[in-house]
Design a protein that fits this description.
Elements: H1 2-5, H2 10-21, H3 29-47, E1 48-57, E2 63-71, H4 81-97, H5 101-108, H6 112-120, E3 128-131, H7 132-155, H8 162-185, E4 191-195, E5 205-207
Antiparallel strand pairs: 1-2, 3-4, 4-5
Helix pairs in contact: 2-6, 3-4, 7-8
Length: about 210
């Protein structure tokens, strides 16, 4: 799995996967995206369980947007694990659109082959296989740094937005709940795959077997 995922040109693997599995080749740009959405919808019907967005105050920027999604495991015959990882990433893209018609149209206007290198060609050295403790430590560090900066925003005398403050106050307990769940339920032997590393504007994915 690491040989396929921990590479500098992972987008090429995704494009090859889509060509082989979804037969997205040779059509117009709009047709490619329509086929993409149709294929991913089928995969989501097969594997997707639920998803919950969480928004925290930014560590290095304005906000940190997280999506906690649950998927069924494949039965072991239809997909290799690296292929299943590709399915999860592509499903995550559709989930992030949140059913927004304008977001779909914006994506459709993006050149299909040029979209994936922008978002999925992360540095191979930024990826890692983590223990359950390392994974929870990374989430805790994100929580602590975000909450510290949020507290500064809440207590500063200018540039405060009460609606933003009230919304974010509800988000930290949700994030803490997920962290507590992982701490209590992941086995010591659990290995978590992290694609990319958290910095500022990067997209980061954790794949957690449960």
């Amino acid at each position: 799995m690491e040989k396929c995922l921990f590479v500098n040109d992972f987008s090429q693997y995704l494009l090859n996967f889509l060509a082989d599995r979804a037969e997205i080749t040779g059509q117009s740009n709009s047709e490619k995206w329509n086929l993409f959405f149709e294929k991913v919808e089928g995969w989501m019907n097969q594997f997707f369980i639920s998803s919950e967005p969480v928004e925290l105050y930014g560590v290095n920027g304005w906000y940190v947007d997280l999506e906690f999604s649950r998927f069924r495991r494949p039965d072991g015959t239809e997909f290799q694990m690296e292929e299943y990882a590709a399915v999860l990433l592509l499903a995550d893209l559709v989930i992030s659109l949140d059913g927004d018609a304008m977001e779909y149209e914006c994506l459709k206007n993006t050149e299909f082959e040029k979209y994936f290198p922008v978002y999925y060609d992360y540095p191979a050295e930024a990826c890692a296989v983590l223990s359950n403790t390392q994974f929870c430590d990374e989430l805790q560090n994100l929580y602590d740094r975000s909450f510290e900066r949020f507290q500064y925003y809440v207590h500063q005398s200018v540039s405060r937005n009460p609606k933003v403050i009230e919304k974010l106050k509800t988000q930290y307990p949700v994030f803490a709940g997920y962290l507590a769940y992982f701490e209590q339920n992941l086995k010591e032997s659990t290995k978590i795959v992290r694609l990319n590393s958290f910095g500022g504007e990067e997209e980061v994915w954790y794949m957690v077997p449960r």
